[in-house]
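Q: Could you predict the 3D structure of Beta-lactamase domain protein?
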Amino acid sequence: MAMRFSILGSGSSGNAALLVTEGARVLVDAGFSARRLGTLLAAVGESLDRIDAVFLTHEHGDHSGGIEGLKKFPHIQIFANAGTARAVQAGLSYRPTWHLFETGARFLFRDLEVTTFSVPHDAQEPVGFRFTSGHDGDLFSPRRSLTFLTDLGHAPLNVREQLRDCCVVVIEANHCPELLKADTRRPWPTKQRISGRHGHLSNEAVRELLTEIACPQWRHVYLTHLSRECNSRAAVERMLATLRPTLTACEFSIVCQGESTPLCDCG
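A: Sure. Here are the predicted structure tokens for Beta-lactamase domain protein:
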């Protein structure tokens, strides 16, 4: 079986993604209630009963808020670094099966090789993940990698390296600077936090990053975590207009709030 992937939901109202291999079914983040996660999984032919683990990027509620409801599914293992686990555990009524890793570590979970790396965001110890599965030279199970990267204010060298030579990139395009500036609902300190170096990537920052790295191995780029008020599909499409001619073999998916994507092969 090839590595398959789906964004179940993305944005300030909740974040979760599904990664499926021959030997594992995992969620990346669980920012929805268990009932909602069950509904989202059913839409792609899966269920919480079949999920093996959750990998948490950080403790913010839109990424970890569903962990409390997973107490009804004690078989699901929760992977996080110590800072994230400590912050999430403080709000739970039970103790999940925590599997702690050190940020920067590389380890195996079933047939997945998991690489963790730090990202700049205003959380305790936020991370990104690179998931790799398959074998070089195997026509039936080719080696595939997916880099999962949301909630960061800028992309330092360690982050950029994880974007090279993978098949699938999942990255936030959080806001349009003009729309953020014009927003009347957010106070100035909040706008500064969002646009700061430990906030969220703007459309322009994503364009510059992807243009600079632009790997021919990329087969699919998911643009996620769009702000409902301070971004739009049209604004992201304008940003992509300069990228598409450079990455002609790459498919782009813009995932707005309230949307999911089909369960697709990674490459």
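Q: Anything worth pointing out?
A: The longest helix spans residues 203-213.
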